[in-house]
């Protein structure tokens, strides 16, 4: 350890696990209104089709946010925040925090990983995260979409009430509603997000375009957010519609997708694309920049504790 600076020490798996969850929660706090606007835009076509009305309530991400603040108050932008933070602490800790460990597992400890190995690691941690934390995602989406109640009553009174109500009315399986499309979506997101960030950052450092610092992390995170939005948006829309649907509305996620295609056309799969990009782009920037700094800070603290003199 002599001559090694704390910044040169690789972060442990524990540091990555808790650092990823913490950074993701911070990113959610910053970008949650954009996520809520995205959900409202994604379910809007479904509401119009169900009511037979041609009236469009939300127009664009900032129009949606303005409408929500005017009609429901500013707090509506953070509907489902508690469930969202629970989701990020459990989701991100697994899908992001364990990504490097999974890469080493597939490469048998080697530092060099091919694109296939990285994709495999991203798919694995993405699927693991959904299997573990799906109920938090279901509750978050339900809270963000509950504006559809026309009588002014709230669908759920609180986070714990939502868990209890869903389990009581739909069974425990209701908490894992949309699990398969969400696994598909999260595998795609994880691969696009982590692998893209991984590769862009590696290329920047390899060609000495930037140092391993904030500008490098910002650039890689922005690119990761854009790529993720393009490939994940269709699956994300289906996931949101299916998880928010009433009992019996759709037979499966595939039926939901086909219904959207026949009633609303292929553009329905990219509803809310702008807020999705604004949210994912900003979320990736805040999360990855925070994650890199948290890893360094926690590693320094760990080194200080282990070597106090």
Which helices and strands appear, and what pairs or packs with what?
Blueprint: H1 13-51, H2 61-72, H3 81-95, H4 99-106, H5 115-145, H6 159-170, H7 179-206, H8 214-244, H9 253-264, H10 273-306
Helix pairs in contact: 1-2, 1-3, 1-8, 1-10, 3-5, 4-5, 5-6, 5-7, 7-8, 8-9, 8-10
Structure keywords:
disordered N terminus; mainly alpha
Describe what this molecule looks like in 3D.
- The protein has 309 residues and is mainly alpha-helical.
- It contains ten helices and no strands.
- The protein has helices at 13-51, 61-72, 81-95, 99-106, 115-145, 159-170, 179-206, 214-244, 253-264, 273-306.
- Helix 5 packs across helix 7 (179-206) and helix 8 packs across helix 9 (253-264).
- The longest helix has 39 residues, at 13-51.
- Residues 1-6 have low confidence and may be disordered.
How would you concisely characterize the structure shown here?
The protein is mainly α and 309 residues long. It is built from 10 helices and no strands.
Radius of gyration: 20 Å
Binned strand content:
under 5%
Helix count? 10
Q: What is the helix content?
A: over 70%
**Alpha-carbon distance between the termini?**
12 Å
Overall residue-averaged pLDDT value: 84
């Amino acid at each position: 350890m002599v001559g090694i600076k704390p910044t040169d020490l690789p972060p442990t798996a524990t540091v990555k696990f808790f650092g990823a969850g913490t950074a993701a929660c911070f990113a959610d706090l910053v970008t949650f209104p954009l996520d809520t606007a995205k959900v409202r835009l994604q379910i809007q076509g479904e509401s119009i089709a169900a009511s037979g009305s041609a009236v469009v309530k939300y127009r664009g991400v900032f129009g949606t946010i303005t409408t929500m603040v005017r009609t429901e108050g500013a707090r509506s932008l953070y509907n489902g925040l508690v469930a969202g933070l629970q989701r990020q602490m459990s989701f991100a800790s697994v899908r992001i925090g364990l990504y490097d460990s999974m890469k080493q597992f597939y490469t048998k400890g080697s530092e060099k990983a091919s694109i296939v190995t990285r994709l495999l690691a991203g798919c694995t941690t993405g699927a693991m995260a959904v299997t573990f934390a799906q109920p938090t995602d279901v509750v978050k989406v339900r809270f963000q979409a509950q504006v559809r109640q026309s009588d002014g009553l709230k669908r759920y009174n609180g986070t714990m009430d939502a868990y209890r109500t869903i389990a009581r009315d739909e069974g425990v399986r209701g908490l894992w509603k949309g699990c398969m499309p969400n696994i598909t979506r999260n595998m795609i997101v994880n691969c696009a997000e982590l692998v893209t960030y991984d590769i862009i950052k590696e290329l920047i450092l390899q060609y000495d375009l930037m140092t391993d610092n904030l500008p490098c992390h910002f650039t890689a995170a922005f690119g990761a957010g854009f790529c993720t939005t393009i490939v994940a948006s269709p699956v994300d829309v289906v996931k949101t519609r299916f998880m928010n649907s009433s009992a019996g509305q759709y037979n499966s996620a595939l039926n939901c997708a086909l219904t959207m295609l026949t009633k609303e056309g292929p553009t329905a799969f990219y509803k809310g694309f702008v807020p999705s990009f604004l949210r994912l782009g900003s979320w990736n920037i805040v999360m990855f920049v925070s994650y890199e700094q948290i890893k360094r800070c926690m590693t320094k603290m760990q080194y200080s504790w282990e070597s106090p003199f």
